[in-house]
Design brief:
Structural class: alpha/beta
Order of helices and strands: EEHEEHHHHHEHHEHEEEHHH
Largest sheet: 7 strands, mixed
Distance between the termini: 38 Å
Oligomer: single chain
Radius of gyration: 20 Å
Strand content: 15-25%
Shape: globular
Number of strands: 9
Helix content: 40-55%
Strand order of the largest sheet: 5-2-1-6-9-8-7
Length: about 325
Amino acid sequence: MILAGIDEAGYGPVLGPLVVGTCAFEVEADPAAPPPCLWKLLRKLVSKSRSRDGKKLHINDSKLVYSTAAGLKELERSVLSVAAAAWELPENLEALLGRVAPAVVAEMARYPWYRAEYEPKYPLEQEAIAVKLFANALRGEMQRVKTQCVHLAARVICEGELNRMFDATRNKSNVLFSVAAGHLDDLLRTFGQRNLVIICDRQGGRAHYGPLLRLMFEEWDLEIVSEVETRSEYRLVRHGHPVRIVFVEKAEVGCLPVALASMLSKYLREAMMHRFNGYWQQQLPGVNPTAGYHGDGNRFLGDIEEKRRELGVMDAQLIRSR
């Protein structure tokens, strides 16, 4: 069975990118049974809660792993350990993006605030050797329990492109679904014949996905299994191979691949905002950094307004319209 999850970070802010991540694990399981709990399967090295002694990775909803006060260290440790267990530890953010979101690497060059020069060290808050050691242990444990992370990817949409998408659709929820649908398509093409189950966090408050799935995946037969207030489930079938797709509220606290997709998305966004703040602090020493969300994002825009006009930064390249 392939158990996959999709989640986002950065749907609400006024500054910075939107990131939609996905993660998939291969696991031995009866396709007719409910998907196994990967937290239980990997419990020797993975926990839903913070480990006091640091002997387990904290994997959960990114909002529970990361906070401004706690910093990026624990989120970075978990995301990079899983990535390094799957491949190798990326030497910088571009190397990580080249693996999980290659399309955005060239796009970032159009934004002076995303240049590598504003990233003084990498990993940002962890030590590389500690991440490598934990990744080795995690790789061995996944082999022991016969599971592995087979897919880790993200779609990173920078401000200018996001505004163009908003202008084209006039609907923020549709933009989010279209980005997530790119992951659905990749998962179906890659794993659609391997008892694929996809769990997605609810997309922008939407409850009914049947018409959109029919439109985007015409070659698949679609069955609406159920559509209730907090959960919508669908069954796609092609050439005798079924795929389950479930959209559910708070999916990240009930499904490890969704939690990891949430954490990957948050980590990539925060790493890019780290560069963003480094750029503006170089242009305007003393300016307080921002996470980009509306209240503080608008404060930040006020603080840098004169400088950004001086630099000729266009609003459509910097400020999200929705």
